[in-house]
Amino acid sequence: xxxxxxxxxxxxxxxxxxxxxxxxxxxxxxxxxxxxxxxxxxxxxxxxxxxxxxxxxxxxxxxxxxxxxxxxxxxxxxxxxxxxxxxxxxxxxxxxxxxxxxxxxxxxxxxxxxxxxxxxxxxxxxxxxxxxxxxxxxxxxxxxxxxxxxxxxxxxxxxxxxxxxxxxxxxxxxxxxxxxxxxxxxxxxxxxxxxxxxxxxxxxxxxxxxxxxxxxxxxxxxxxxxxxxxxxxxxxxxxxxxxxxxxxxxxxxxxxxxxxxxxxxxxxxxxxxxxxxxxxxxxxxxxxxxxxxxxxxxxxxxxxxxxxxxxxxxxxxxxx
Length: 320
Prior knowledge:
Elements: E1 13-14, H1 16-19, E2 26-29, E3 43-44, E4 47-54, E5 56-61, E6 64-69, E7 73-76, E8 82-86, E9 94-100, H2 113-123, E10 136-139, H3 144-160, H4 165-184, H5 192-210, H6 217-224, H7 228-239, H8 243-261, H9 266-272, H10 278-289, H11 293-302
Parallel strand pairs: 1-3
Antiparallel strand pairs: 2-9, 4-7, 4-9, 5-6, 5-8, 7-10
Helix pairs in contact: 2-4, 3-4, 5-6
């Protein structure tokens, strides 16, 4: 990369708690109020949409240089190193900066199948065709009137904070997303099913590496950066069971291995496998295997076939 655009040894991460007002999942600024990050490569834990209304800059994103000028729109997804480096122009570099998390769009506005598809695809960038959308997207040459007027409305609602402003902001952001899709001429990709499966696989990888911890639906949704309601429905449709059931399945399977291969006490095994207490462990173990932990260990060590053990079925064999 050009030495004019230095990359820090440790890339700073901006979180929503640093930027957003308490209790809100959206922030809009014009002109930039957090100018410390202009010209400094950074990452953030939210989605950012930048619309340039004056001047020009070089946008460094994932070690690539992209020219940015008036009328350009950039979508920067979470955890993507990037920065705008303004050029020395006659006009100052000014842009609307819209930031939000998936939770901001959890509303009845997204209940229709079509909007839901847009919502999920937008928030998880891998659902876009790879040639059109990586961890960032760029629309060049948009006229100011096409997006500028809408950004102006979004900004006014945000700063005026009149009654119902959050709902109006949400409606405007949904409108913006739809218009971005129109501009990109992007429909829901035909291979959406396989990409949704990739999301579930990513969640399962996280689950199998962290099953011993206290995990919530929020934790899983955050890993794939989807709203928890959408992720919950997607996981169940793909595997055939809720994420909570699958988590118990993995914990029980790991407990079975420890019962057979170690001399750990049942209490210790319950703790190692993420169960809140021994009673809860016994109830779940008996429910999923048909045996108590002691019976399971005795049967396994004696070579007895465990006919009572049950399997949690899933739709896809790769998840079993």
